[in-house]
What we know:
Elements: E1 9-10, E2 28-34, H1 40-49, E3 53-56, H2 63-69, E4 76-80, H3 90-104, E5 107-114, H4 117-127, H5 139-149, H6 151-156, E6 159-162, H7 168-179, E7 187-194, E8 205-208, H8 229-236, H9 241-261, E9 266-273, H10 279-293, E10 297-302
Parallel strand pairs: 2-4, 2-5, 3-4, 5-6, 7-9, 7-10, 8-9
Antiparallel strand pairs: 1-3
Amino acid sequence: MAARYTPVMMTEGGRGGSSLASTGARARVLLVTGMSGAGRSTALKTLEDMGYEAFDNLPLSLVPALIESAAVDAPAIAVGADLRTRGFAVEGVLETLDDVVGRTDRDLEVLFIDCDDERLERRYTETRRPHPLAGDRPIMDGIRLERRVVSALRNRADIVIDTSNLAAAELKRLLTGHFALGTIGLRVFVTSFAYRHGVPRDADLIFDVRFLDNPHYVPELRPLTGRDPLVGAHIERDPGFLPFFSGLWGLLQPLLPRYEKEGKTYLTIGIGCTGGRHRSVYIAEQLTAQLRAAGSRVELSHRDLLLSGSPAPIPAGTPVLAC
């Protein structure tokens, strides 16, 4: 996912948008920072579409006045800053925002957009953009120096989103889950995945179901998926299925209200198997149904279903997100 950057951007998103007044929640100031090229500007644009007033790469000396002069009923403000921002210094950024947030009775949260070094290097190479700290040195030298410079901000962050393997739609889902305006309570996202394609980096909880009997080795079940009743019946006949699923629900049931009590708004649960086609898909489907029956707000995706061999038909409306 390539980031789109502009030197200075002041947007009007959020005026007339949804308000937090009806929820009783305090208005938010969100600092959006991170590694250059990781997708910070894309995140800001998404937040703007969600109703935030977004300010990107403005000199830090102007930020306090902008926040204080924003509409009183503005539900939230997103301030974009990274090492290219004039006056940028890690301690200075936090001190400036802490001060103005204290005066305006808002809550400050820090969102850090990250990406692995090799992917960042590839993005700079493909777009032929110079890294702001590289000078006449290799791009990787600039990336490594920047990572040291911003490490304190990453440590301070309330949320870190790694875009190394995220499609734009997945980034939007994560931002909506964590920072949607006017929502109360915990939202849960369940995704199946294949270990061969890597663990979901945004997952809060991961459960490995590779111990269950694999339908892949049953010729008549191999072309089917975990959404098919025949596959489900095969998995349920495994003597380890029921104890596992009962234990999984017994673990999650008391955890969810505790997460919500602590203010967590979005929980991602990953269910993994070898190919991401049979076992993980079935368990994710069953867990989603159980969560919904218990009254949770839950979304479901099968991340690697279309990557796990010959394509199988998937009912309309089922979200299958790109890796």
